[in-house]
Amino acid sequence: MATNNNMICDMETGVCGPAGDDTTTMEFIDLSVSKKTINLYYVTDPICSHCWALEPVLRKFIHQYGHYFNMHTLMGGLLEKWGDGPVDPANGISGPSDVAGHWREVGEHSRMPIDGTVWYDNPIESSFIPSRVYKVIQEKHPKLANTFLRRAREELFAFNKNIAQDDVLIDIINQVGLDGEEIVKQSKLPEADTALHEDFQLVRQLGVRGFPTIIMMNEEQKGVRIVGARTLEDYANALQRLLPDETITPKQLSGLDQLLKEEKLLFSREIEEFYSIDRTEVEAFTQQQLLQDAYTVTSLLGEKYIQAK
What kind of architecture, by CATH, is found in domain 38-205? Predict the structure, then answer.
């Protein structure tokens, strides 16, 4: 009687024994199917008010779907300097004081607080200055680059600081945990300007004409360009279009304690968006999620924000 040497332990049944007639001794398999890689280009500028308005949605999108793409933040160069003529005639902006009203409208609509009086009291001379700082940090300390960008926007939009001034930039960089004086010094070297203009060149190649713009591109260099601040569903749907062979699944969101630990400061609108809750629920939700001595609550321009102690 012939001996059956084709023995296995079945993973489904847990039974060990003959493999059966339907299982061959050798089977050719191919596991080399490559997973599609999506590159996401976020084109922005430190003084872009609509980019500030996008922060709640963009944060949630990255947290939930960031495992599907590689993110690249590009500086777009919104304001090189103020000249004699209009800077943005379409929006009626000829000089610094014209920006304040536009910013206030964006803040009121988005509920991401914007003061805007910096344009009267101490106008920003150029967005290229903080953009160069961003490029230095992105090159030397890439994990902290977007943290710096967030802190700079908080100081500018909410707390009315001129982020084109060395002392303000140094303070922000120090808060991030880097050497502010050294980073600002490096940002004034030709290398930083070269890096910034490399961003500008790529932005032009991507066909970007305004901020914020998000472009998602697959390995075949086919993609989706989304202009302006849009909804979470818009970005998720665009990503799904680039991955037609799989159903994208959002990751579970971290708790508010972890989110505040990462972000340090969160406005009510950001908490509402992140956890899909109503404005009226934020106070109770925060008290439930956080220890009482772990945060402070403050109001600014009619909007509340929490800050880690």
Answer: 3-Layer(aba) Sandwich (3.40)
